[in-house]
Structures are given as structure tokens and as C-alpha cells.
Fold this protein.
Amino acid sequence: MSIDVNNESGTEVDEEAILDVARFALARMRIHPLSELSVIVVDEAAMEQLHMQWMDLPGPTDVMSFPMDELRPPGKDDEEPPPGLLGDIVLCPEVARKQGLDAPTGHSMDEELQLLTVHGVLHLLGYDHEEPDEKAEMFGLQAAIIDDWRAEHGVTGPSPAPTTR
């Protein structure tokens, strides 16, 4: 899996954890190991600009996903999908910090960025949360991936609760 993390935010983030959780999520979703993903970490001003440009919504947001090849996870009996360009995930650590502090379980900016990375991966793979049934499926899958990743890394304590919109 080729994953690039480019931090343009000026805020120190745990890039290794972002890389690792993205790789874990893609493997869990059975995405071809030669697929490519880009993760870009930006400041609030850059995120606000992207949010307005692409969603026509004011203010910065936590995560945005820009799919390229529209890859989808294979079904249980499907063959391995071909490699491709997944696209870009854009993260905003300032928004992540605020959301982590405001979350019911209260967690760090880096824990929130890990959650948002998985959220972004799922969006790239076609998952959405506009409808209640879609939200239940996506957030359930997101929680399972984060919980399994945390368990594999010996992280104890409550998992970050979903804080994305």
C-alpha cells in the first residue's frame, strides 16, 4: 500500500499513526495492497477554503475526502479488486483538537485524527452517512476498525466516539 502523509498545517501530528491506521483500514476493507492514498493535513484557513469550494459550506470542517478511481471493497466471495488510486483525505488538526475535547469520552487531537482518517478512508470507498441506515453502517464499521486497530496496538481506555457530522 502506498500512502503518503503530507503535513502542511504547521501543527505537529502523529503522522506514523495516521499512516498505520489508514493502512490497517484499507487492509481490513480488502483493498488491493498496491493501491495508492494521499493524506494531507492542513490548517483551518486551507480547510475552510476547501469546504467552501467543494461543499459550498462556510467554516472549516474536520475531514474531506476526494475519491479518484472510485474503488470499492470486494464482497466476501469476490476476487481481489485491482489496484488503483483511492484519492485524497484532507485532515484539519485544529478542528480535530476541538472535537476531541468536546467528545463525550474526551480524547486527544491525535486520537481524533486517527478516527477521521478511518472516516475518510470509508468515504473514499463509497460509504456515506446521509441516511440513518447508511450512518449506522458507516459508523459501526468505523468503530470496529478503530477498536481493532487500538487493540492491535495495545491502546487501552474508551475508543473515541464518532464526532464527524
